[in-house]
Design brief:
The chain has helices at about 1-30, 45-80, 85-90, 100-130, 140-170, 175-200, 210-225, 260-265, 270-285, 285-310, 310-315, 325-340, 345-365, 370-380, 390-395, 400-410, and strands at about 205, 230-235, 245-250, 255-260. The protein is mainly alpha-helical. Strand 3 and strand 4 form a beta hairpin. Helix 4 (about 100-130) runs antiparallel to helix 5 (about 140-170), helix 9 (about 270-285) crosses helix 14 (about 370-380) and helix 14 packs antiparallel against helix 16 (about 400-410). The longest helix is centred in the first third of the chain and has 34 residues, at about 100-130. It is globular, with a radius of gyration of 23 Å. The model has no long low-confidence stretch (mean pLDDT about 90).
Length: about 425
């Protein structure tokens, strides 16, 4: 028990120390380059825009320092502070069946966690984003989104908790395999349902009205044998001025979505190049590869949980006095990030490699120069720093840093 407690605390401290070090390096690096636009961007990014991006990054860095500190403190309260034990004891007094006790315990933990996260969420939206002119969210819309998220949790999340706990209790020795298959099926179903059922609860989607742009997009899709349920424009401006575009869905439910803010920022050629990049993820099978990687990682997690859940030291070492199936699952979800934190650079490297491949695909379908111009506009409009710390970006960036990405595209034949 003492040994596992010490190991957990050591990993937790290491993760927090590394994250704080990375953020401080990142902030210092951005500040040091605040007053000089990188040479590759001097014709397209003004000094005041570059300084705004630096200041925005530094402000996000302060929040990035607060978040892991708060998360670590709360985790220690839940485990060694005995909060999980007390919450479990409160639900046990109801005398319900373990399945319903476990469901109530996990559901209440999720709700409490959301409430505790609320102050940082409010500051992120109405403090940080508001300060730099990106926020369009109103307090009413923020509250409405929270209410919708809570209703979705009741409608989808709670039944999923019940199902997983039932499988864990009733499926015998290989419950972990059935639980993993259930989780994988649920994840795939959500990818299929999200664009058609869930996303419209939060945003309005309308068909793309620009016929010239629509024809250009249809030609691009036809050249690559790609079919979708349509091209839509989303009212992203209702919440933020940030622009984006994405593919959503699986199989016949695939659809192309542009933020209305993006449509207003880019030319038709640039939009086509951005879409070609997103299409490259499908043509290079990145979606399938990511699903396969996610499934493999989660299978390993369920196998490990299948062993840990029967180990008394696992509960004792984390401050839990009454072992149970639902507490084993809860503890595993809460503490596993402390042990997997140092794997983050691997997943980030894989993601950046996929981004390079998608950029290469886009450069073959549309002019690389158009994608470069689109990316520079997006970096500028979204106030993304052009000078991230190399170590921080290697650890956290899912996309290549701006100078490296532009240099890669510039090296492509015209």
């Amino acid at each position: 028990m003492i040994l596992f407690s010490c190991i957990f605390l050591a990993f937790l401290a290491l993760g927090l120390a590394v994250e704080c070090l990375l953020v401080r390096r990142h902030v210092a690096h951005v500040r040091a380059h605040r007053d000089a636009v990188p040479e590759a961007f001097r014709d397209s990014v003004k000094l005041d825009e570059h300084r705004k991006a630096a200041d925005y990054t530094v402000a996000k860095g302060r929040l990035a320092l607060a978040e892991p500190v708060v998360a670590t403190a709360l985790l220690l309260v839940w485990t060694f502070g005995g909060a999980l034990d007390r919450l479990d004891g409160a639900w046990r007094t109801a005398g319900w069946d373990p399945l319903w006790t476990g469901t109530a315990f996990i559901a209440s933990l999720v709700v409490i966690g959301a409430i505790l996260d609320l102050p940082l969420s409010l500051w992120r939206v109405f403090g940080l984003e508001q300060r730099f002119g990106f926020n369009r969210m109103t307090p009413r819309l923020f509250a409405t989104d929270l209410a919708k998220q809570f209703m979705l949790f009741l409608a989808i999340g709670v039944p999923m908790i019940v199902l997983v706990l039932w499988i864990m209790e009733a499926s015998g020795r290989y419950w972990w395999l059935y639980a993993w298959a259930t989780w994988l099926g649920f994840s795939l179903a959500m990818m299929w349902l999200y664009p058609a059922v869930i996303a419209p609860l939060f945003n309005k989607f309308r068909p793309l009205e620009d016929q010239a742009l629509h024809r250009r997009i249809e030609d691009l899709l036809a050249r690559n044998g790609f079919t979708s349920r349509g091209v839509f424009v989303m009212d992203g401006s209702a919440r933020s001025t940030h622009g984006n575009a994405y593919f959503a869905g699986m199989g016949a439910s695939k659809r192309i979505v542009f933020f209305d803010t993006l449509i207003g920022q880019l030319s038709h050629e640039e939009i086509e190049a951005v879409l070609a990049h997103e299409l490259g993820h499908f043509k290079r099978h990145h979606i399938r590869k990511r699903i396969a990687l996610m499934a493999a990682v989660m299978l390993a997690g369920f196998v490990l949980l299948g062993w840990l859940i029967d180990q008394p030291w696992f509960y004792d070492g984390l401050g839990v006095t009454h072992p149970s199936t639902y507490l084993g699952l809860t503890l595993f979800v809460l503490v596993s990030p402390a042990f997997t934190f140092l794997l983050q650079p691997v997943f980030s490297w894989i993601s950046r490699r996929h981004e390079f491949e998608a950029d290469d695909f886009a450069a073959a379908q549309a002019q690389a120069g158009h994608l470069i111009h689109a990316l520079v506009k997006l970096y500028r409009e979204n106030a993304n720093t052009l000078t991230p710390d190399p170590l921080y970006s290697a650890f956290h960036y899912s996309h290549p840093p701006a100078p490296i990405r532009i240099a890669h595209l510039s090296s492509r034949p015209a």
